[in-house]
Amino acid sequence: MAEKEGGIIKKGHEEGLKMAVSLLEEFGLPLGLLPLEDVVEVGFVRNTGYFWIVQKKKVEHNFKLISKLVSYDSQITGYVSKKLIKKLKGVKAKELMLWPPVSEIVVDEPPTGKVHFKSLAGITKTFPVEAFAAGQ
């Protein structure tokens, strides 16, 4: 995989989770955005912003504050930069009975306390950043 070339890779749940959280911190994204379980590997390529996360199985997480059920596939990939994750693959948010893929996550800059989730279907949903605080 060419996009993984030159990447930093952390194996195992503890090391992988630490790296995922430090990436969210570094790029100003809510720390609870990726509620991961049984992490196998996390990788990041600093020059391109490409990241990947591999978990043992798909995880569904309910963000209680906004009553949103989000599905995280066993493999999540995307490109991270300041306040932004784009070309995101492996994350879906339930809308009624559908699970449209989330393709982009943007945190407002300057901060407004809002985070926007864009789907490939052109749907954008906006929620308060607090909904994605660690431990929610």
Automatic annotation (TrEMBL):
One family name in Pfam for this protein: DUF538
Gene3D superfamilies recorded: At5g01610-like
SUPFAM superfamilies in alphabetical order: At5g01610-like
InterPro entries with a match to the protein in the record: At5g01610-like, DUF538
Protein name: DUF538 family protein
Species whose genome carries this gene: Erythroxylum novogranatense
